[in-house]
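A further point concerns the way the authors explain their paired sequence and structure data. The central task, working out the structure tokens from the amino acid sequence alone, is never made concrete. I therefore recommend that a typical entry be quoted early in the introduction. An entry of this sort, consisting of the sequence and the corresponding backbone structure tokens, reads as follows:
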Amino acid sequence: MDSSNYTFYNIDGIDSRAGLEKYFSDKEDMVFREDSLIFPIENIIKTFTDGHVKGELLIDLSVGAVVHHLFTACEFFKHIIVLKMRDRCIMELKRWVDSRTGAFDWGHAAKHHADHKGISDLLQDKEGKVKLALQHIVKCDLEKENIMEPMVLPPADCIISALLLDFICRNQDDYLRYLRKFSRLLKPGGQIILFGFIEATYVTVGKDKIHLLSYDEDCVRKTLVDAGFIIDTCKVKKRTVVSDLTDYKNVLFIVAHKEKEL
């Protein structure tokens, strides 16, 4: 497929609502449920409830306006800061947080968290709790040395990044460069949780075919080590979806902790 026809997330933006409807909704024709919703949710629940990740501050650096991976995080962190590169994604997420008319319905994600063993909140309490936690949704610029300039964020205990690196990186050098920026946001020993698509080159959102960085598991492992992380957990799920909307081969969930400053 001719990559010259692709658009780029950090240049051209994304139709955030179309992305949510196609890849994260509860619609009957949403074929990506097992890969994009269930796999990351269940692995994040296990990671948190096993006691491996917790603390004062969590920073979320994820693509679009996704929030399904944060429903359990509010149980283990006092503060959550969501950083977004695109204004449209901020508007979409704030519409849900503020319970505005027309907001995307994340009830299916909340239900999956609430029903999971070890999570005892009632469904309505689960949604309300995460909305209360997501009061800091702020724009960032990953090309700046201080991505929150002129603000300076306190060191975080954990960063979650769902698919963002897949969308914004053109090559492996970019992947390493951004991981090092993420590392500088973490305390020594702080943890990073990544969710991504393996061996993907594009994803279709609305009318756009958006470029994705193609990488394999070994490449991510090596890049994390080069960025000063020690890998704690790595899970890979084989794709079972039949769809030409995207061409990923597997989905990846990985947890690592920061070893040192680079």
